[in-house]
Design brief:
Elements lengths: L1 H31 L25 H4 E3 L6 E5 L10 E5 L4 E7 L5 H4 L2 E3 L4 E9 L2 E8 L4 E7 L2 E7 L7 E7 L10 E2 L2 E2 H18 L4 E5 L9 H10 L4 E8 L12 E5 L9 H16 L3 E6 L4 H4 L5 E8 L3 H7 L2 H20 L3
Length: 353
């Protein structure tokens, strides 16, 4: 009799364990989905302004001239004509490079700089293969206009908001060789992210809206988290969108699928990150017909918590779901995702962002 009771209770315990195990295995991935965004391996080093090698404080080398506010007059060697000078604006670095042919080893001791230094954080000069390079690091992101006149090049630093009605920064998450991105069936997440951003770029290029767009990357190169966030902040962006794809245990296929969007829960502004993320999610679900994974608090992510504007990090779909993966790799699906993001930004601007 006692043996029968022990056997009966043993059966009940075993059955209970089996049921609990099934529930755990079935629902745990869904509970965890909000946190399965691929780790961004954050570097907590200071996100402050980078310093150029051998740079000088601008006030020590720029002669202040009131009539040149917001401008810089750079004297050129006598044998250098205007067409031989190139001016490159590297937005990601917030640095302008002025290049001209010369053998001058020390520009600052032989030539003059005049104008305003309040838009400049540092100035460096070096030579490379017979080319003099003046590296001018700006205090924030500016568009730079230039013209030549009487042996000098004049640089004018223009706030993008004085040119465009709105300014946005678009980030293709990760980069080739970067840690943290998922890989499935030989496809890197960085490739998919970039493919969607390039489709978005086509829409923005063709848009009649007067929007200034700055991209963290348009090729396979990786970009640090600090540079991504710094670009958005330096541009005083109205919106910051980061494009990603999700994964659950990226070494095998999973039934987990769907779309989610991360936002900054610490953004309490009237036009805030959560509302922008909600617009992105709604438009993505409408265009893609994907499963709703919802909005996810994202301040644990570096680029979200350090962004000084409304930010949304979209997780288009799960690369580890075979059906969703097969959609994500097609140009048609990538175009739909891009159109959804574009429409979300347009609606955000219509709402006053």
């Amino acid at each position: 009799m006692i043996e029968k009771k022990i056997l009966r209770w043993s059966s009940v315990v075993i059955l209970g364990v089996m049921i609990a195990t099934f529930i755990f295995l079935h629902y745990y991935p869904m509970i965890q989905m909000s946190y399965s965004v691929v780790e961004d391996l954050e570097d907590e080093s200071s996100p402050g302004t980078k310093q150029l090698a051998n740079s000088k404080a601008p006030e020590t080398v720029v002669e202040n001239r009131e009539e040149l506010q917001g401008k810089l007059k750079m004297e050129l060697p006598d044998d250098v004509a205007g067409p031989a000078v190139t001016v490159e604006n590297h937005y990601l670095e917030q640095t302008v490079y002025v290049k001209f042919p010369t053998t001058c080893a020390d520009y600052f001791s032989e030539y003059s700089l005049q104008g305003s230094s309040d838009t400049i954080s540092s100035i460096g000069y070096y030579t490379e293969d017979g080319v003099g390079v003046m590296a001018i690091q700006m205090s924030r992101l500016y568009e730079v206009e230039h013209q030549f006149e009487k042996g000098s090049v004049y640089l004018t630093f223009v706030d993008p908001h004085d040119i465009y009605d709105k300014v946005i920064v678009v980030d293709a998450g990760h980069g080739t060789g970067a840690k943290g991105g998922a890989t499935m069936a030989g496809v890197d997440e960085a490739e998919l992210n970039l493919a969607i951003v390039l489709q978005l770029k086509k829409l923005l290029d063709a848009s009649d809206l007067n929007i200034g767009v700055y991209y963290t990357r348009l090729n396979e190169w990786d970009v640090s988290l600090q540079d991504r966030a710094r670009l958005a902040n330096a541009a005083h962006a109205d919106l910051f969108i980061s494009v990603h794809n999700n994964a659950y245990q990226s070494d095998h296929w999973s039934y987990i699928n769907g779309t989610s969007v991360l936002y900054s829960q610490s953004d309490n502004a009237e036009h805030n990150s959560k509302r922008f993320a909600e617009l992105c999610l709604n438009h993505l679900l409408k265009e893609l017909g994907s499963n709703r994974r919802g909005l996810v608090e994202g301040d644990s992510k570096y680029i979200i918590r350090t962004a000084e504007c409304p930010v949304a990090l979209v997780e288009i779909g799960y690369m580890t779901n075979r059906d969703e993966f097969n959609k994500l790799v097609t140009p048609e699906y990538q175009k739909k995702a891009a159109r959804a993001i574009y429409n979300a930004m347009v609606q955000a601007f219509e709402e006053g962002f």
